[in-house]
Design brief:
Length: 359
């Protein structure tokens, strides 16, 4: 994903370091037992745009189902080693919440460790892995080192692209971002993306012995084909990037449907929610906050389109300051992330949608 992040982020508005669980240039993970036989591998909040999605292992009577495979093969190998410690049962299924590579880059590690693993996604996700993610992987491997060199030069000169003098924090940030990109590119060279073996349109039930796992497409949202995964016996749901904490991403989103999809997610009645990024949640507060944000952006943009305002004028007009505060909570890193990876893009997506343009 970093290409899409870096192309949007001016050096002056980049994220600043976040320390938790972050020992090296790539974010590590913390393992959380969520319920009996359900383990979440929660990726640390990133120092910068190099992120990895959470993974979850659902252990049944005769096998394991894993949700998402992460962005960095070395980290995926560590997770696989942990799963082997947790159970002697094989990983039989790997399910994708969506096509973004921070959730799929570890696929071939699972195939290597468990040759019979069946990879499952929505048809849209399968198509996007084949049409977009594979090209995007090659491009990031090719362009990553140049971008890292650029960031190192920026740090050395102490000046951003506009010529503005950078603060000490921004200089540190640029250096660390360069380290992260180089570490990520080394990981990406080990990635072999795989096309899912099976797809489902609306629903699919998988039985791991007595334990049932339900795969559901609730409608478009974060992408055109997000899957959520629900384990009814313990009321645990994996939401993928329909929910991203602390600040959402809006890259390929469909705002109007996203609001409806979050309503359906809530209606499942889960008591434990594992977001695509960020810690495990035990109530619907974050779903509600996210819905309010999407509604606010969407209705303001629709209003602007009715008044025939341009996209630029719409951007200037949309005001979500009070909601933004609740995501950002006075953390400047999160504020930069919120503005660069959610707000600007969400306004553009909502504008396109309101104009009836092709998405
Ligand atoms: Zn993600």
């Amino acid at each position: 994903m970093f290409k899409r992040f870096v192309s949007l982020a001016a050096v002056s508005s980049l994220l600043l370091p976040q320390a938790a669980l972050h020992a090296g240039p790539l974010p590590g993970h913390e393992t959380v037992k969520v319920a009996e036989g359900i383990y979440a591998f929660i990726t640390a909040e990133s120092n910068n745009a190099i992120v990895s999605g959470n993974s979850v292992a659902i252990v049944g009577d005769d096998g394991v189902l894993v949700v998402d495979s992460g962005n960095f093969p070395s980290e995926t190998r560590r997770i696989i080693a942990e799963i082997r410690q947790l159970t002697p049962l094989p990983v039989r299924y790997l399910v994708h919440t969506h096509w973004h590579r921070d959730h799929t880059d570890g696929d071939s590690e699972y195939r290597g460790a468990f040759p019979n693993v069946v990879i499952i996604s929505t048809p849209y996700t399968r198509k996007m892995i084949g049409d977009v993610a594979m090209k995007n992987l090659d491009q990031e491997i090719k362009e990553g080192p140049d971008y890292a060199s650029y960031l190192r030069k920026v740090a050395q000169d102490g000046k951003g692209s506009s010529g503005r003098t950078l603060t000490a924090e921004e200089i540190t940030y640029s250096k660390e971002f360069a380290d992260s990109i180089e570490a990520a590119v080394a990981e990406f060279k080990q990635v072999k993306l795989l096309l899912p073996d099976e797809t489902f349109d609306q629903e699919m039930a998988i039985h791991l012995g007595k334990r049932e796992v339900q795969l559901k497409f609730l409608g478009r949202g974060n992408t055109g084909g997000d899957a959520v995964i629900y384990v009814p016996d313990v009321k645990v749901v994996m939401a993928g990037d329909l929910l991203v904490y602390p600040t959402p991403f809006a890259f390929d989103s469909y705002l109007t449907e996203w609001i409806q999809t979050l309503g359906k997610l809530k209606a499942i009645g889960a008591t434990t929610i594992i977001p695509g990024h960020g810690p495990v949640q035990h109530n619907n507060d974050y779903i509600d906050l996210m819905s309010s944000l999407l509604q606010s952006v969407n209705s303001q943009v629709q209003q602007s389109v009715k008044q025939n305002l341009s996209l630029d004028d719409t951007r200037k007009k949309v005001d979500v300051a009070s909601l933004e505060k609740q995501f950002v909570r006075d953390n400047p890193n999160r504020q930069r992330s919120f503005e660069a990876y959610f707000l600007g893009i969400a306004v553009e997506r909502a504008y396109k949608e309101a104009k009836g343009g092709a998405m």
